[in-house]
Amino acid sequence: MRVGVLTGGGDCPGLNAVIRAVVRKGVTQHGLDFVGFRNGWRGPLEGETVPLDVPAVRGILPRGGTILGSSRTNPFTIEGGVERIRENLAKFEVDVLIAIGGEDTLGVATKLGELGVQVVGVPKTIDNDLNATDYTFGFDTAVNIATEAIDRLHTTAESHHRAVVVEVMGRHTGWIALHSGLAGGANVILIPEVPFDVEQVCDWIRSRFRTNYSPIVVVAEGAVPAAGTMALASGEVDAFGHVRLGGIGNQLAGEIETRTGEEARAVVLGHIQRGGTPTAFDRWLATRFGLHAIDAVADQAWGVMVALRGTEIVRVPLADATTTLKTVPLEKYEEAKVFFG
Ligand code: F6P
Q1: Of 321, 313, 319, nearest to 296 (Cα)?
Q2: Measuring from each residue's beta carbon to the nearest atom of ligand 1, which residues come in under 6 Å?
Q3: Domains, the chain, ranges and CATH?
Q4: What is the pLDDT of the chain when averaged over all its residues?
Q5: Which of 34, 100, 217, 239 is the most buried (most CB within 10 A)?
Q6: pLDDT tens, 128-177?
Q7: Where are the beta strands (DSSP E) in 67-168?
């Protein structure tokens, strides 16, 4: 059996660990043959491939990014896209596709699966917002990077008596903001799930300054002010219809300065959170996802995705990953509020 592998969507530390595990176990224990598709769904769409065998995956375990490349190409928005994928799978004699991706990539995999393409999914996203799995790899790395940044920003903020707003990733959900904010001792955490009142944020800032400490605000890029409290700039849209975010941190710092009279700076962590070597946890999770995904292929369990439940890796229907987003429950956010202000 010949297996095609692709990585789609935003890259994520741990992707290479999945590819390595899939190929190593696939070749040595299941006798499978592989081909790599380049740049997400663009690979099977355009017929862009790379050889994928045991030598090709040597030494990639600690490397960030993906040796296969990635893109946000959506074949369902391209005329004749699905037919072209079918033709290329036949041309390269690929029997099954392993799609490693988030909501969008696995959404495409789910639809292709419904159209008869043999697919197995592996969940990834630094945002940790995929339903049906307790954690996605990449999240732990992003949280560690953000926490280290917050630690560093505390000391420089204290020296200059400034407020610092740290903008982290999280388009729809505030998992990175919540976990790094708690770990880094932030004084305010703002997440997309709970629209914020800018005046309440300023009260927390003022109270922190009164105790002679400099406040750190951690804001998820998708956080929004409560209706009518603060105007927001809008951005461009990608192939899946997502707005390109990244602006709330600067806007909020401006509001804080104007309303409190205290100096406020914004730091946008951006793609630093997605780059570089994965943490040990992410390497462990990504490796186990890869091992279980290739077992699903060997069992011909099409249309499933591997997922973490507690410490076990299970198989769930692909559609479970994409039907609802895993948002931060209100009670988990409320728990953090004891540290606000
Ligand atoms: O979906 C993962 C993610 O990291 C989001 O948190 C963020 O909004 C987005 O990717 C950024 O994507 P891009 O690299 O395309 O700007």
Answers
A1: 313
A2: 10, 102, 125-127, 169-171, 221, 244-245, 274
A3: 2-138+278-322 (3.40.50.450), 141-275 (3.40.50.460)
A4: 95
A5: 100
A6: 999 889 999 999 999 999 999 999 999 999 999 999 999 999 999 999 99
A7: 96-101, 119-123, 163-168
